[in-house]
Amino acid sequence: xxxxxxxxxxxxxxxxxxxxxxxxxxxxxxxxxxxxxxxxxxxxxxxxxxxxxxxxxxxxxxxxxxxxxxxxxxxxxxxxxxxxxxxxxxxxxxxxxxxxxxxxxxxxxxxxxxxxxxxxxxxxxxxxxxxxxxxxxxxxxxxxxxxxxxxxxxxxxxxxxxxxxxxxxxxxxxxxxxxxxxxxxxxxxxxxxxxx
Length: 196
Hints:
The chain has 10 helices and no strands. The protein is mostly helical.
């Protein structure tokens, strides 16, 4: 069982969240190219040095919400019972985490920002880190080394790409079904190729 974070960890998380929220808010208002790191730090009420303790760029701060959601999912997946089949653990972790972390209005705004070319490297770096983290947890669960065996990395890449497809379709079509319903449909479709 994971121990709850201490005061120091909670303060660090609060600062990171304040910076990410400020970056997103300012970039939505002014466009990514119209915002400086100094403005983000000022908006969050911290020094420039503090900003760079958490993020290397404003672009990294803008995609931090996606990173936090993926980290929560990987953590939830890793905490599922060891004897639970891998796809059932995936389903339960996603159904537990996504509805809690995904806000339709915020995602629609963020989608507009994602068309900014300067955000692409930060997005790709975040996606890659998320896939590697998930592959590590999958490897532990099924007893395979992600550095040697293909299954953990293929599973992780497919899952992360599938989640992006599901969320994008949910936004693009204005689907009013709960996101959990679409997650269940996604896992059902993955099942034939990833039964373990």
